[in-house]
Each structure stands twice: as structure tokens, then as C-alpha cells.
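The records we work with from here on pair a chain with its fold. Here is one such record, which you should read through line by line:
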Amino acid sequence: MADSGSQHLQTALVLLQKHWGYSQFRPDQVPVVEAILQKRDTLALLPTGGGKSICFQVPGLCFGELTLVVSPLIALMKDQVEQLKRRNISALFLHSGMSWQQQRLEMENALKGHYRFLYVAPERLASTSFREYLPHLKLSLLVVDEAHCLSMWGHDFRPSYRKIHELRSELGLKVPIAAFTASAPEWIQNDIKAGLGLESPAVVNGNFFRPNLRFKAQETENRWDELLSELHALGYPEKQETAIIFASSRKEVQEAALFLKEKGFPAEFYHAGLTHAQRSDRQRSFMKGSIPIMVCTNAFGMGVDKPNVRLVFHLSPPSSPEDYYQEAGRAGRDGKPAVCAMVYSTADFDYRAQLIHRQFPESKELKRLYNAVMNAAGILPGAGRETHIPLDLEAICQRYKLPAYESHFSIKALESLGAWSLMESGVWGSRILMKYKAEEVYEFKVAHAEFENTLDSLMRNVPGLFQGEQIVSEQQLCKRAACSESEFRQQLTALHNRGVLLYHPSQGEQQLWLLEERHIHPEWDMKPLVELKRRRLVALKAMHGYGSFADCRAQYWNDYFQSKSPAFSACGVCDNCQKTESHSAWPEFRESVSKGGLSRLELLRKLPQTSPELLENWIKSGLEEGWLMETRDQGLFLAQGRSAPEQAPQ
């Protein structure tokens, strides 16, 4: 690095120590931090748990001005902002759950330099009001988190990510872009570089080898038995370690949680079908440790950063290696040993392939769903651009006689084609539109004095109330109306029933952010969806390849992600390495215990090439089966009249 770069790095280390308590960056973090400090465009591929937030937060502090962070994960943005505030670093998460007035106030504060970090969802970039402020913000760094969402070929494509490059060009932003993702094959990396317009970027491919993780995959028809076996290996029921169990459907999630509860395990379930309050409560309980075992769909994984997860168990295989490695990477973030186990059958992959074929509807199905959604929301042709609309897909399917399962994927397909963006539930405020004219509202207040405070609170604090639907916070408005939140909601409901206004209370429902006006005769280029379908099938085949892989599983991930991990031939702890090690080391173990008189520590020293975990498993098996004995004085020795088996225990 140049001298100025070295000085920046020294400053970064001081800030790292001051705010995070670390004296050094991790080896994987150093090249990322150095590239950003040099103000180079950067693409960093760091595995889950690789500490990517520090890689941009510390340089952002070094630059001394505002860092804009674009991320699709609302829970993760909220968590990072809260963590920054606990470290006495000013940060703001701007979201549509805020009132229009609150958003304007916070952006004014950002203009005055009151914040060092501003977090926004990608859809915010298309907002006219936000774009008005953006040229005036003193930005020093633009961060794109979960950058694979920019790629049509990624599993979480978000069309609004394409706006980042547009803004950079339109506004002439000269700030560097730092793009982060946990994993991305070469074609997705190329899509990210092109989509963001990265200029000669530094590409840092992190070390994907995590030596504390033991990967296992088992083809079986008895997945429940395998699950119980892994939980017992953690020490249950006496010792209650933290575990995450992934299932492929809501039904399977609930069945698995019920099965474990009936067996006496402290399990709870989590999926997108729960209310927002239920999901928040269960995630909070899991993070605090009062729910040790969480059975969930992949809706739970994002934003969950709990260091002491000892087991991640997949009851069925995910659709791609990228999905699996990210979910499995929730394990062992504290650096201590953890297990990542997956069970599967050939039927699982056949079923997944059938799902992929169903996930890509024909053009005529897309048009039917598109028109149904627009009609249900009352969006007229030529209108609707930059509008939030609620999405009650079940009601829409019933009303317009559409197939529920295929309609869900039509929503996602239309998102990929840029018609709209599906927003996470739970952060949107309630929506209000005043139907009466201003003079009619005044007359109504005179005739109905009991509503005066509520109407005054709305009219004084919610701009644009007569022009269109406005997102409001009852919690804030009720204070100005001098009543409780429940009373305020009751008043709004009564006014809605009387026809004075339209009131849609927030239920944590899904929402669509319309990216363009409604078309009378919508047409889309279907070729990208055809190619996307092909790539999904290729990814599924790679996942099947992992399940049946016969060599070191950690090496499989190293090769798949083209990792820059130090060269190694075998991890020594995955199930395949253990089988190989078991076959080669068992005769020496058998001979050692036959002679007797060795303590566990002495046995470990005698067999230095054998993992402590494998030796413990053999000793445990021998003690349980009765051919091995152990005392404090004599150490390990064979029981009288017994001999060690010819083959190593499985």
C-alpha cells in the first residue's frame, strides 16, 4: 500500500480497537479493508460469519462522512443500526414504516451530517423524494450488501438493485462502491460487476474453509432418527445446546417441531405463515437462549447472527449449494466445533426438480395474475408507479379463481421481470386516505365532537392526506390526539366505517412496491426466465452432487466457490474424512487399548494424526458396548475376556 493507505489502515486499526474491541482484522478482512481505504471499487465474497459488516463500517468511519448502505434484509439492517448505536456510532435505518414527516426530518438530519451510516432498502432508490436528497448528501462510500440480488441468475433477484448504477451515472457520484455477498459463482460475479458498473474492482474471494465445521450428508429414509441422533450427540436432554433445523415447507416445520416436543426436546417453529408479532417474539427468544432448538424454513436464516449454534440440520436438501452453505454457515460462528448435517433421498431431488419446473409460469399465466393484482388494488392503466399496495394473495386467488401455488411463483417471476418488488412484511405502517374534502371534515367535526382530536391529529401531522394514501404511525399520532393507541385505532376504524376516510391498519402483510405504471397489455421478454430455469436445474444438480460426494466435503465447498483458502487435501472432520480416517487408524487404536494403561490424553498423543472427536467416539462406543473399561488409576483397558471389534464403530 502507499503511505497514505498505510496511514489509513493505522487509523482503521485504532477505530477497530475503540469501537469493536479488536486489535487486528481477520486475515480475510484485511484485503477488503485495504481496497476500500484506497477508495477502489470492491467486490468481496466472504462466507457467512466472515465479519463483512466490519469491512465497510470501519473504513466508513475513517472517511469521516456518510456511508450509504443498500441492503434487502430489513431485520439485518435494523440489527446493524442497533449495534452501531450501542458502539456510540450514529446510524439511521430509513424505512416506509416511518411517517412521511419523520422520513423528511431524518433526511434533513442526514444532510446536516448527524449520521455516519444510512441504511436503506434497494426500493428506496427509486423513490422520487429520496432521489431529491441524494445529490446533497456528503457521501464517502456506497455499500451494496447481498450483492447477488442484483443478478437475474441469483436466487434472490431484486430488480431495484439495478437502480444503483443508474443513480451513480445520473448523479455523477464519484464515491467508491463496496459490494458484498456470501457466495457467488463466476457468472453471478460478472453480473454484479456489470450491473453496478464497478471500475477495475478489487475482487476479494475469502477463505471458505471453516475448520470448526463438521459437514455431514446422509442418504436415508429415516430422517427423524438421524435428527434425534445428532441432537443426542450434542448431549440432549441433559445438555441443551443451540440448534437450527431447516425444513422445506411450513407443514414439515410444524411436524418436526411437534415430533421433537413429544420426544421432550425444547423446540419451537418459525415460518412466514406466523404473524409478524409471533415471528419477532420467537426470533427474540431464540437469540436470548430461551428457545434452544428452532425448526424453521429458510425465512428464519437471514439476519440471525447467534454465535453459539452447535448444529444446523437440514431435513431435506436446499435447491442450490449457495443456499445450503449460507444456511449451514449459521453454525459455529464463535469458532468452536459445530455440525452441519443434511439428510436426503433421491425423491427429494426429483421433487425439487418438479418444483423448479412449476416455478416458471407461461406468459399467459403471468398476465392473468398481473391483472388480478392490479384490479384488486384498484390500480388504473397508466397509474401506480412508485406505489405500495398490500398483497393478500390468498384472497386474490379466491376472488379471481387462480391457482394459489403457481400464483406465488408468478409474483416472483414478475419481480424478476421488473414489474414490482415484493417487500418484507412487518415494517410497514398503516395507510390512510381522507375521502371527505377539507370543508366536509370541518363540518363533520362540528357535528361529532368525539372525533375532533383524532381528525386534528391527522390533518396537522400527515401531509398529502387528501391527495393519496399515506403511511402513518398510530403510536405517534395518538400522543398528539391525547389518547391511547388502542383508542386511536378504534376512532380510525369508526371513521372508516362512516366513510370519512379509508383506513388500512398494518397487519404485517406482504406488500408490493410497483416499479412502473400499470400496462393495459403487458408484454415481457421471457428469455431470461427460460435461462434462469436452466441455471436453477444446474444448481440443483450441484447440490445433489454434494450429497453423494465421496471425498472431503470441506474441499467440495473450497472447489465449488473457487475459494482462496490455503491448499489442503482433507479437513479431517467431515463424515467422509472420518470414514477414511476410521479405516486407517482403527488398527493402531485397537492395538493401543489392547495393551491397556493409557489415559485419554496419552492415547491422543500416541495417535496424533487421529482427530480427538473420532477417538472420543470410539471410546464412547467401547464403553457403551462393554468391551472397553476405564478407571482413574488404570486408564483405558479391555474388559476381561473381551477384545476390540475388527471393524471400527460407525
About this structure: The chain has a mean pLDDT of 85.
